[in-house]
Amino acid sequence: MEQCPYCKAWIQEGLFTCTHCREWLPEGDLSRPPKPGWREQLRKYYPFLVLVLSVTICLYILAKPALDRVFANPNGPFVSLLAVVWIVLYVLYRLIVM
Predict the structure, then answer these.
(1) How many helices (H) and strands (E) does the chain have?
(2) I need a labelling partner for 94 at 20 to 30 A (CA). Which of 11, 48, 59, 85 fits?
């Protein structure tokens, strides 16, 4: 007898699904809890993501007049903002996946 990692009910060994909660059981050792998926980890970092993106957008709005003088190309500030957003998303991806 082993314990289901989802509903904690005792089930027979060798089953593919739990007879109580009908979840697919992971192959191998059931004594360890299942690793959280990417959605659970994204929920963990969601407030940080919203904060960084909102601060970046606010700084862009506040600094746009000064940035317009620095960049001759009118798309320069937008490209800089896009680069910052991509860096933040890459860091979050590394935190979640790795």
Answers:
(1) 2, 2
(2) 59
Element (H, E) at 13: none
Beta bridge partners of 2: 11
Tens of pLDDT, residues 37-81? 777 777 888 888 888 888 888 887 887 777 677 666 667 777 777
Q: How far apart are CA 53 and CA 41, in angstroms?
A: 18
Return the exposure string of 27-56: e unless at least 16 CB atoms fall within 10 Å of the residue's CB, then b: eeeeeeeeeeeeeeeeeeeeeeeeebeeeb
User: Rounded to two decimals, what is the model's pTM?
Assistant: 0.38
**Beta strands, E only, the chain:** 2-3, 10-11
Q: Beta partners for 11?
A: 2
